[in-house]
Amino acid sequence: MAMTSNNLQQNALGLTAKPALLLVDMINGFTDLSCALGSDCPEVVAANVQLLEAFRALGLPVFFTTVVYHSDQQAKVFRQKVPALNLLQPDSHWVKVDSALEPADGEPVIEKQWASAFFDTDLDQQLSAVGVDSLVVTGLTTSGCVRASAVDALQNDYQVVIAEEAVGDRNPEAHRANLFDLNAKYADVLPVAQVLSQLTALCGDKG
C-alpha cells in the first residue's frame, strides 16, 4: 500500500530478527456476521492463516487476544458506549478464537477488556520474556482494537508492522483512513507478501 503524508518525514522500520505475531481479536464474535459485533471477513481470516502458518514454520512466537468480561464492573464506560460488548461473556462461543486460527499448545491467548492488547494485561511482560522487539499486528478491527494495540506497541518500543490484508473493519472508509494514519506515524503497513519476504530474510534459518 503506497501511503504518504505531506511534509512529514517517516522511516520504514520493518521487522527485527526477533518478531512475534499478534492476532488481535480474531474471535468468533468479530469474524461471525451473525454476531452484532461481527463482520463478513473471510479474506482477513485467510490472510491470518497464511501468516500464522509462516510464523509457526519459523518457530517464532505467536500471541492471540480475546475480549472477555467477567463482571459488570469491568470496562463499564466502554460497555455503555458499545452495549453489544456485553455478549463477550466467559466460555461463550463469541470469545473463542475463530476455529480456522485455533491456537496451538503454548500460544498464549491474552484476555483483555479494552481496545488495546497492552492495556491492563501482561502482554508486554510476556513479549519481553521471549525477547521480542518487533510485532506483526493483524486482526479486527482496524479502527478500533488493531489501531489501539499498534499505537500501544509503539509506546512500548516495539517496531510494528501491520499486515494489510490481515486486518479489517466494518467500515471500509474507516479501514482505509486508519491504515493511512497508522502508516504515517505509528507503524509500517505492508502487504502480507512483503511481510512474509521480510520474515524469510530475517528468520529463514530458523525453519
**Text of the CATH class:** Alpha Beta
Which percent range describes the beta-strand content?
Answer: 15-25%
Give the tally of structural domains: 1
pLDDT < 50 runs, ≥5 residues: none
Please identify the structural class as seen in this structure: alpha/beta
Mass-distribution shape: globular
As for the CATH topology, it is Rossmann fold
Strand order of the largest sheet: 3-2-1-4-5-6
Largest sheet: 6 strands, parallel
Assembly category:
single chain
What is the chain-wise order of helices and strands? EHHEHEHEHEHEH
How confident overall, as mean pLDDT? 94
SSE inventory with pairings:
Elements: E1 19-24, H1 28-31, H2 42-57, E2 62-67, H3 76-81, E3 109-112, H4 123-129, E4 134-140, H5 142-155, E5 159-168, H6 172-185, E6 188-190, H7 192-203
Parallel strand pairs: 1-2, 1-4, 2-3, 4-5, 5-6
Report on this model:
With 207 residues, the chain is an alpha/beta fold. 35% of the residues lie in helices and 17% in strands. The protein contains seven helices and six strands; from the N terminus they run βααβαβαβαβαβα. It has a six-stranded parallel β-sheet, sandwiched between helices. It is globular. It starts with 18 loop residues before the first strand and ends with a helix.
